[in-house]
Amino acid sequence: MSINIKFHYVRHGETIANRNDILQGSKDYPLTELGHTQLLNTGIELNQKNIEFDLCIVSDLKRAQHSAELLISNLNLKLKPKLIILDSNLREVAFGVREGFNKNLSVKQCKQEMAKMNGWEESKWIDIEDNVESEENVTKRQVSLFNSIDILLNSYIENGYKYTKNILDLP
Length: 171
Fold this sequence. Notes:
This protein is α/β, with parallel strands linked by helices. The chain has helices at about 15-20, 35-50, 60-75, 105-120, 120-125, 135-160; strands spanning about 5-10, 55-60, 85, 165-170. It contains six helices and four strands, in the order βααβαβαααβ. The chain has a four-stranded parallel beta sheet, covered by helices on one side. The longest helix is centred in the last third of the chain and has 24 residues, at about 135-160. The mean pLDDT is about 85.
């Protein structure tokens, strides 16, 4: 049985880190007022397009969950997803020691800033691991996510649930 599926990708709303040019990666920052407005407006736009969603897959980070809640709260009842799933595979790339610092700083500068904040001497910070997520790991997470979606969709279809071929995905 062949089925065409539409994915609708919606990024989280603006966060405090976005506003201040801070690299957030897997660190969690709250949404700004503008971020709230962005998601409420997106919900209005989706209502106008009258798209039904069966499934909403969301990163386990609070900014993504809050974004999904805001967006879904603004959907007409008939458009709301029947199932919401949290998946850590949707997390942003982990930027290691650079997370929480200005996005224009180098790894070395972030390590120096970290040392200043902790009162460390150079010998302490020079050996701090970068812990930047590899492209290989990001790819593995994406493959794992899509394998999980495939299994879930097959189960969803086989069990006779209404299926509208639209999936709302909020990374």
